[in-house]
Amino acid sequence: MEKIIKYFSLIIVFFSSCEKKEEPITLPRQGLSTVTVIEMKEDYSQQVCFSLQTGAKFTSATLGWDLAFDNRNASNLILMNTGKDVKAWVSNDTDFAAITSPNGIAFDWDRSDGSYDSLIIRDRWLSNGKNNNKIILLDLSNLEPADKRYKKIQLLNVSAAQYTIRLANINGSDEQRVNIAKQAGENFTYFSFNPRPTQKSNEPQTRSWNLMFTRYKTWVSALGSTIPYTVTGVWLNPEGVSCNKLVDMPFESITYESVKNLPLLTKRDVIGYEWKGFDFDFSNGNYKIFDNWTYIIKDATGTYYKMRFLDFYDANRNKGFPKIEYQRL
Questions:
Q1: Measuring CA to CA, which residue among 69, 291, 322 is closest to residue 213?
Q2: H-assigned helices in 163-221
Q3: What's the sign of the alpha-carbon dihedral 300, 301, 307, 312?
Q4: Which candidate, 208, 214, 244, 246, places its Cα nearest to that of 231?
């Protein structure tokens, strides 16, 4: 019996020695601080998707699109390019020929926070998940030729692969049926009407970028009222990216431990445009940067970064070249 006990004791010791020892979990070392310039150009003609992970920049034309069609599962939102001044009105008419003039139409812009209720078109062409055939009127802005400025569209169908829309000038001319393919792995498929209906890929793959530097319409306070105004700012990638702002905390002293419990927001414009302000010393007439503001950003993998703005001008004092400093925590 004593031999049997010794035998099993040896077996237990053998298997215990074969067990993999648990290694203590250690966080990766904090990354190096990096400074880069986002080239939007002096006329803000470029919008730029930027990756904090790799530093990669994906550039497209700011004014090169009118609508963005959602590619994400179970989401059929339609967004407008308010940086181009595109606005819309969703009618209750289902007769495509019923509306032939923009007169009296209360066009409006999407709001900049990107929340569901802030979007004008969103998925209002659906009722209880089914197509309601409502006619949507669009004002593509005074950047378009007068005879092509106003459009009407009707969403005919949406599937996992594409949207099908009916479109025409508001007077009914140039009517077409167009398929807009959903771009796999990208948040939105971008679409322009003129000079001919064209879909575009203005974003890289969803998980390969965090921030979009762009132009958009927002509401600002001026002279005691709130007015729509076009600004240059930053949007978050809506898929898994969140952010908040710290003020007057030295950039160099911010660590993961100091921000890991910071509440983070997913509003599209949480970074927005207010990291700069206009210096009303008219002898100067420049934008000034609030470099004591640090943005804490968490990406879709749970990795934290800190970022601040350093400048809005290039070496020749041309505006439209935001300079940022960022670091993985």
A1: 322
A2: none
A3: negative
A4: 214
Residues in the chain: 329
What are the tens digits of pLDDT across the range 166-190?
A: 999 999 999 999 999 999 999 999 9
Contact status, residue 287 vs residue 231, Cβ threshold 8 Å: no
Query: What 3-state DSSP class applies to 52?
Result: coil
Which DSSP letter does residue 108 get? B
> How far is residue 79's CA from residue 75's CA, in Å, rounded to a whole number?
12
**Torsion region of 41: left, alpha or beta (phi above 0 gives left; psi -120 to 50 gives alpha):** left
Q: Where are the domains of the chain?
A: 34-61+206-328, 67-193
Q: Are 156 and 179 in contact (CB under 8 A)?
A: no
Residue reference for tokens 């001319």: 173
Contact yes or no for 145/194 (Cβ under 8 A):
yes
Count CB neighbours of 221 within 10 A.
9
Instruction: Say whether pLDDT at 285 is over 60.
Output: no
Closest to 125 measured CA to CA, from 143, 138, 112, 111? 138
Paired tokens of 4: 């049997």
Measured in Å, how far apart are the chain's first and last C-alpha atoms? 60
Dihedral angle, C-alpha 171, 172, 177, 180, nearest 10 °: 10
3-state SS class at 18? helix
Dist. CA 241–CA 265, nearest whole Å: 9
pLDDT in tens, 100-153: 999 999 999 999 999 999 999 999 988 887 889 999 999 999 999 999 999 999
Q: What percent of the chain has pLDDT over 90?
A: 81
pLDDT for 189:
97
Kindly report the number of other CB atoms within 10 A of residue 174's CB atom.
Answer: 14
- Reference 200, options 209, 185, 212, 188; nearest CA is 188
pLDDT band, residue 20 (cuts 50/70/90): very low
Q: Residue 8 CB: number of other CB atoms within 10 A?
A: 10
Bond before 195 cis per omega within 30 degrees: yes
